[in-house]
Amino acid sequence: MTETDQKAEPAYKSRLFVPKASSRPGSPPDFSTLNIPAAGAAPKPDINCNALDIQDLAYSLIRVLDDKGCAVGPWQPEIQTDELLKGLRHMVHVRAYDDRMFRMQRQGKLSFYMKCTGEEAIAVAQAMALESGDMLFPSYRQQGLLFVRERSLVDMMCHCISNARDNLKGRQMPVFYSWKEGNFFSISGNLATQYSQAVGWAMASAYKGESHIASAWVGDGSTAEADFHHALLFAATYQAPVILNVVNNQWAISTPQSFASAGTTFAARGIGFNIPSLRVDGNDFLAVYAVTKWAAERARLGYGPTFIEQFTYRTEGHSTSDNPDAYRAAGEGKAWPLGDPIERLKQHLISLGVWSEEQHTALAEELAASVTKDWKEAISYGSLDEGPHWPIPTMFEDVFKEMPDHLRKQRQQMGI
Amino acid sequence: MAKMTMVQAINSALDCTMAKDPNVFVMGQDVGYFGGVFRCTEGLYKKYGAHRAIDAPIAEGGIVAAAIGMGVNGLRPVVEMQFADYIYPAIDQIISELARLRHRSGGEYWAPVTVRAPCGGGIRGGQTHSQSPEGIFTHVCGLKTIMPATPYDAKGLLISAIEDDDPVIFFEPKRIYNGPFYGHGSVDQKSWNAHPAGEVPEGHYTIPIGKASIWQEGSDVTVLTYGTMVHVAEAAIKASGINAELIDLRSLLPLDTETITASVAKTGRCVIIHEATRTSGFGAELVAEVQEACFWHLKAPIERVTGWDTPYPHAFEWEYFPSQTRIIEALQRTLETN
Ligand SMILES: Cc1ncc(C[n+]2csc(CCOP(=O)(O)OP(=O)(O)O)c2C)c(N)n1
């Protein structure tokens, strides 16, 4: 300890700029400053365009579904109605799963959970626009990818409760899924690390002359990490066949997107790296699907990376450890001007005459019941508190391919 | 005197130093408006404003680098890493820059940065919310590394750290943020309310960095530990009935070798306990110190009880943690040898 600087000095008249939030508790939600262009207004460029040709798309918002649920404009994707119905089903299923798991956490059956409410269209539409050989590098809010790739929900649940059937052997917190068979990369707790790894995976695909592409997701807050910038640089330098998505859901725990966006859009960041960059309405299933198809085709045909900002809103808390009412205006999620992705696709399908409110209600009920059934099956294989779990000594496995002597000794010290 | 949890004591330390010195400020993810995910910076935003309780982007490397620059320009930054596990993105700035600035510039520049980081397991945080990386930092030249075990110590040591002109890595064992912990999930979490170390003065006081505390005196074996494990060790010693001297190191670097060696010279036996993994952990350094200074006094091999050399597992926390049972066995083993 020293005595320097210990005398109290008059407080500074600080001129430091600190960004503000869109809202705080006690004030009404206010999205009036958002600039939301009409659906159908954004042009659809050629896939061999370069970044500067389409820089406007990094500042506007690609939208297909208008307020009445009609699909309009050049970005309308070629997609069959039964595919759209499938997409709707997946989204409703994800929401039912999230609700169930959240409640189970509240009842102490799992240690933690994270919902993606309001963001379902992103993972579901993107997974449907990709091919099964494409590699996914998700963050923790893209459970929809697993649904589209038909991961068994029972297996997902078994992971979340670390029971004897958890494919991660009780080692990971809930939601940090991994599923090699489905080309779904192991989720890390350390934010943004997967982003530049995805680029590396895509570089390998190009190196081997293959046509598989990689897709990565990162949150708006996580774009502040150095790994985010490494990803853009490597993707641009090696023209890697990769889709780099920023899921801008407006909040990173209590911190608004203004602490990472630097007063511009996230998509704008791609332009400096000369990567074609687009901003899309993340609550518009058709727009997300169309943009992803476009980006995937570019990557597959060798035109390099695409950078996409998925513009959306995190309706629920950050996780089960979070109380959003402590840092943002109550009801902000409801005031989100781009609506709810499930409602919007539902409305579209009803307007096409292929869906109805009654069918929708029946679907939600069917999937809630099926999730309940899955949960019952999952806990029949063991629960977090009571087990059975993987045998404890398995914690010493997989640290290395072969167990070295020091670990073998430690395992023996455990008495096993 | 007030009763405080460790979280409140840390908050009070920040408040006291900010009130006293306008150069002190806090910065980190969610530390401003929200008051920190563990509530350590609660109320500072309201009291001192957004430019002294500064929310930061999720960029640990950026946070530490900015703190270095601000520190060089006369301020006293206290930065929070949301979890000690997320200190790694900042490691180049800490190791290559913060730690060495004074030395490499011939003493011309330095940055009095305090890096606070909640560490340790026992909260079902899995492998990236449970680590104890202190050994990485004690290996670096130019950093002071601290880990308190009580609210009283946390406040006094944190004030010392902030007022220190050297960079300090201040680890906060989050398992004992709200009360002591005796080693197993099934044991109710006790509150600091009922514990003498929960008595914390409201005002400014300091505890010198580099001084261990003798938690309890004893004659048969010296137990060296710090952080959460002080409480687990205390409970284990009690359960074993062994007359052990328990030393809470508090400061790992600089290390109070005098207190340690005087104790081992007296007891002739030594058990070292930490939650961090074993190999190249801080315990290895302690073993070396003790055997160099006390070789002729030792009546038994020095024992280490540590976390296993595996990433921290979600489902097997209590098996991973040095348990009371493992500690008691180690104590008994050292006493068997003459
Ligand atoms: C390297 C690192 N720093 C901090 C954290 C703690 N943390 C977990 S999630 C989170 C917020 C992430 O926000 P964002 O990237 O916007 O994603 P969202 O949760 O909104 O989907 C933070 C700070 C972490 N997991 N990893």
TrEMBL record, chain A:
Residues 1-12 have a biased composition (Basic and acidic residues). It is an enzyme of class 1 (oxidoreductase). Residues 15-51 form the 2-oxoisovalerate dehydrogenase E1 alpha subunit N-terminal domain. SUPFAM superfamilies: Thiamin diphosphate-binding fold (THDP-binding). Residues 89-382 form the Dehydrogenase E1 component domain. It comes from the Bacteria. Keywords: Oxidoreductase, Thiamine pyrophosphate. Its EC number is 1.2.4.4. Gene3D superfamilies: 3.40.50.970. It catalyses: N(6)-[(R)-lipoyl]-L-lysyl-[protein] + 3-methyl-2-oxobutanoate + H(+) = N(6)-[(R)-S(8)-2-methylpropanoyldihydrolipoyl]-L-lysyl-[protein] + CO2. Its cofactor is thiamine diphosphate. InterPro entries: Alpha-ketoacid_DH_E1_comp, DH_E1, Oxoisoval_DH_suAlpha_N_dom, THDP-binding. Belongs to the BCKDHA family. The branched-chain alpha-keto dehydrogenase complex catalyzes the overall conversion of alpha-keto acids to acyl-CoA and CO(2). It contains multiple copies of three enzymatic components: branched-chain alpha-keto acid decarboxylase (E1), lipoamide acyltransferase (E2) and lipoamide dehydrogenase (E3). This is 2-oxoisovalerate dehydrogenase subunit alpha. The lineage of its organism: Bacteria, Pseudomonadati, Pseudomonadota, Alphaproteobacteria, Kordiimonadales.
Automatic annotation (TrEMBL), chain B:
Its EC number is 1.2.4.4. Its cofactor is thiamine diphosphate. Gene3D superfamilies: 3.40.50.920, 3.40.50.970. Transmembrane segments: none annotated. The keyword Oxidoreductase applies. CDD domains: TPP_PYR_E1-PDHc-beta_like. This is 3-methyl-2-oxobutanoate dehydrogenase (2-methylpropanoyl-transferring). GO terms for molecular function: oxidoreductase activity. Residues 4-179 form the Transketolase-like pyrimidine-binding domain. It is an enzyme of class 1 (oxidoreductase). Keywords: Oxidoreductase. InterPro entries: THDP-binding, Transketo_C/PFOR_II, Transketolase-like_Pyr-bd, Transketolase_C. It comes from Kordiimonas pumila. Pfam families: Transket_pyr (PF02779), Transketolase_C (PF02780).
